[in-house]
Design a protein that fits this description.
Strand content: 5-15%
Organism: Streptomyces halobius
Radius of gyration: 40 Å
CATH topology of one domain: hpI Integrase, Chain A
InterPro entries: DNA_brk_join_enz (IPR011010)
Largest sheet: 3 strands, antiparallel
CATH architecture of one domain: Orthogonal Bundle
Helix content: 40-55%
Structural class: alpha+beta
Strand order of the largest sheet: 9-10-11
Shape: elongated
Number of strands: 31
CATH class of one domain: Mainly Alpha
Number of helices: 30
CATH superfamily of one domain: Intergrase catalytic core
Distance between the termini: 153 Å
Protein name: XRE family transcriptional regulator
């Protein structure tokens, strides 16, 4: 039939039938699409179908009929994410997703990779090429005779594995570069192959960070480097080991579970750098395995575009490569862009050298939180650290019903509003205190001091109690005294009932009663709880000692007390005087005498030369921490007790136009200029630890502690100074001896804040020491004069 001849009636009828079939299938699919997606109109649905299944494509009607039947049987096909579907649905979901409609693109049923070319269909869904190859039936290689091998090719002798296929001379050909006969790994445009040594992985510019490197993924949107692929595109599933929703590093196969980045360590191999057999998840430029330690140690660095230091780069911004320190500093401190006026991390520079945001120079890196819209502080999955912190606080304090009780509301608000969210997130993740807090929240009990007293005494219990007091959930009390009854109950758990019947009234009606009366008049010393516990422990030891000798309280005589004191290896047993004073007042024992503790002279004095050397180091050595320099200088100059040092606040500092003073006692003490600058820095510097908002404002400590609202403990300050070579006891004794030699006792007491009796003893000791020194000097001069006359 010629080109000009009319179309045969049978052809016209067939084309009309095909058009009607295509029209019916299109209308059916459009009806299902508009029903599943209310925001999608009919015209947009037809346009999406034309893109996903072009009309000129052969078999378009069959594809659409198959799609219509699938949508009729599965109304949630566009939102379920199931890959058990026709191939055209994969392309249609991709088109609708790019158009901004709320669809869930199906991914590989095994690895979760979202692709439009999942050709292999299994009972669980469609698979990508890699997962399909791994899931195929394994056989015995006909050449190496290894069992369970994936078949790569078949030869006359039978199936062969990948290793034998690559070593098969029939697959060798001359390399286009080196000319050697090897197995080609890639082919150039002219069809000639390249061996593994001559092939260089192609470099691509990442569409996310702009870095030029080997691509982990190349699709229609462009190339993604490994870092950006891991950050944005790598699928997330529940890890088979830790059970958390994370990025999967090794997919489940051969009976093995999915493993996230934290649980997967890589296969054991011989590290090409240290030659040790270790888990090696990385490889060098030649493809040789490298263990994690050698990878971090031998990472090549380049000059950072912000700080100029040569370090391994974390990312590449328009300003150039950026190290991890600068990357964190910029993202956590967004500022207003001078060009567009938006608050963004300033990661670029304009022609004049001013810092601007990325979009102003065409760099489409979005650091805006997808949940709250706040810029900067990115943490995970497009959310900022503030949103992640609020979510984790709610998960920590929520009860079985998933809600936070009204009583814990102030604590949840204080934790979520922490000014530094990253340290707070780290604290929630790693601190053992959060485990106790989560247990208390899950039990749904009314929190009270009595409930906490029932728990075993521990550092975590004390921290949680102070945290609840700090946020106003519990009333503040004298914790140093009020926690002792709970400690006693746990101490009496394995003690005889007769000991408990004596220890309880001794503590409650004698020790605590007197301690509370003193606390009402003045602030108790920091060691008050330790002293009370020590007196009760000595009493319990004494009762056990009596039981070993078959003695009762009514049988006690003076010789028994002498025997008890004589068997002591330290001065601790002298504390039995408090227990015997109580038993005598209750007429449980006769009048007994406990000898006084032998008075001792100050020991381990730091001589003036060493003291001035340490003082100069505190005032001039910038390598020491600021709190160590200030605390050490105050101790070396004024001999202040560690307890008084820890409780210093900015109110103790008096700054004038020319001079600065420190109030330790009744009268201010003039400070050296360098020490005044250190204390000013401590008073003005922001707190390093995340501070929680307090229900009732409290003092700001110059030396804050780990517990919210509390200063550093005396033990902690002593240990910190000792670690830096400043022995507190010897330094304080040396300073007090030097001051007592120059000042009268009333002035020494007023300046240092010590008791007048203590000042008298120090002055008497210093004067006696000087008198002995002068007498020794006079004796030496007399001896020298006698020798000269002879």
């Amino acid at each position: 039939m010629s080109a000009s001849s009319p179309t045969a009636p049978s052809t016209v009828a067939r084309l009309a039938a095909q058009a009607a079939r295509l029209k019916a299938a299109t209308d059916a699919v459009v009806g299902h699409l508009t029903a599943a997606l209310p925001l999608l109109d009919g015209q947009a649905a037809e346009a999406a179908l034309v893109t996903a299944a072009p009309i000129p494509t052969r078999g378009a009607a069959r594809y659409l009929e198959e799609l219509a039947a699938h949508l009729a049987g599965h109304p949630d096909a566009l939102t379920s994410g199931s890959s058990l579907c026709p191939p055209v649905l994969l392309r249609l979901a991709q088109v609708l997703h790019e158009a901004g409609y709320p669809v869930v693109r199906p991914g590989c049923a095994h690895c979760g990779t979202i692709r439009t070319d999942l050709r292999q269909l299994r009972t669980e869904g469609r698979l990508c090429g890699s997962c399909d190859a791994r899931s195929r039936k394994r056989e015995t290689c006909a050449r190496c005779h290894r069992d369970g091998q994936r078949v790569v090719a078949r030869r006359p002798e039978g199936p062969i594995c990948n290793r034998c296929y690559r070593a098969d001379p029939a697959t060798f050909e001359g390399c286009a570069d080196c000319g050697q006969l090897r197995h080609p790994v890639v082919r150039r445009d002219d069809g000639r192959g390249l061996c593994i040594k001559c092939w260089k992985r192609p470099m691509h510019t990442c569409v996310s960070c702009g870095k030029t490197a080997a691509a982990a993924l190349v699709d229609d949107d462009g190339a993604l480097c490994h870092l950006c692929y891991n950050r944005h595109r790598r699928p997330r599933r529940l890890c088979g080991r830790c059970g958390q929703l994370k990025r999967i590093a090794r997919n489940a196969r051969d009976g093995q579970l999915d493993l996230c980045d934290g649980c997967y360590q890589g296969p054991d191999a011989t590290c090409s750098i240290c030659s040790r057999v270790r888990p090696c998840a990385s490889r060098d430029e030649q493809g040789q395995p490298v263990c994690a330690t050698c990878y971090q140690r031998h990472r090549t660095g380049e000059p950072c575009a912000r700080c100029g230091k040569t370090k391994p780069s974390t990312t590449r911004w328009p300003i150039g490569p950026v190290c991890h320190v600068c990357y964190t500093a910029v993202l956590r401190s967004p500022a207003e862009c001078p060009r567009c006026g938006t608050v963004q991390p300033l990661i670029a520079r304009d022609e004049e050298g001013s810092e601007v945001c990325g979009p102003c120079v065409g760099f489409a890196a979005d650091y805006t939180c997808k949940q709250c819209g706040r810029s900067g502080n990115p943490h995970s999955r497009g959310r900022c650290a503030h949103c992640v912190l609020a979510e984790r606080v709610n998960a920590l304090l929520a009860g079985p019903d998933g809600t936070v009780t009204a009583q814990l509301g102030p604590l949840a608000a204080a934790l979520a509003d922490a000014p530094s969210p990253f340290p707070a997130i780290q604290w929630l993740k790693e601190s053992p205190n959060t485990k106790l807090l989560a247990r208390l929240a899950s039990q749904r009990h009314e929190l009270s001091h009595e409930l906490l007293d029932e728990l075993p005494p521990s550092r975590n219990q004390r921290y949680i109690r102070q945290l609840l007091v700090h946020t106003g959930i519990l009333e503040e009390r004298n914790e140093d005294l009020e926690r002792i009854p709970g400690w006693l109950e746990h101490e009496l758990a394995d003690k005889p009932a007769t000991h408990a019947s004596l220890a309880r009234p001794f503590l409650h009606w004698f020790l605590l009663r007197r301690a509370r009366q003193r606390a009402a008049i003045r602030r108790p010393p920091a060691s008050a709880d330790r002293d009370l516990r020590r007196r009760v422990s000595v009493a319990l030891d004494f009762l056990a000692w009596m039981d070993q000798r078959g003695l009762a309280l009514t049988d006690l005589a003076q010789e028994h007390i002498d025997d008890w004191i004589a068997g002591a290896t330290s001065q601790r047993r002298y504390l039995i005087r408090y227990f015997l004073k109580w038993t005598t007042s209750r007429r449980l024992t006769r009048e007994l005498t406990v000898p006084s503790i032998p008075s001792q002279e100050p020991q381990d004095l730091l001589d003036d030369e060493d003291r001035w050397r340490l003082l100069q180091r505190c005032l001039t050595d910038d390598a020491l921490p600021t709190d160590v320099r200030a605390g050490g200088a105050i101790t070396l100059l004024f001999g202040v007790s560690t307890e008084r040092l820890c409780h210093l606040t900015p109110e103790h500092l008096k700054f004038g136009d020319k001079h600065a003073h420190l109030v330790l006692g009744r009268h201010p003490v003039l400070l050296p200029p360098r020490l005044a600058e250190l204390l000013r820095r401590l008073a003005e510097q922001p707190q390093l630890r995340p501070q929680l908002s307090r229900a009732h404002p409290g003092p700001q400590w110059l030396f804050p502690g780990m517990v919210p609202g509390k200063p550093i403990s005396t033990h902690g300050m002593t240990q910190k100074l000792n670690r830096h070579g400043i022995t507190v006891r010897t330094a304080r004794n040396g300073a007090l001896a030097a001051l007592a030699a120059d000042l009268p006792s009333p002035i020494l007491a007023d300046v240092t804040g010590m008791h007048r009796h203590t000042a008298l003893r120090w002055v008497a000791y210093a004067r006696r020491d000087w008198a002995e020194y002068l007498a020794a000097r006079a004796a030496d001069k007399s001896a020298d004069a006698v020798q000269a006359t002879d």
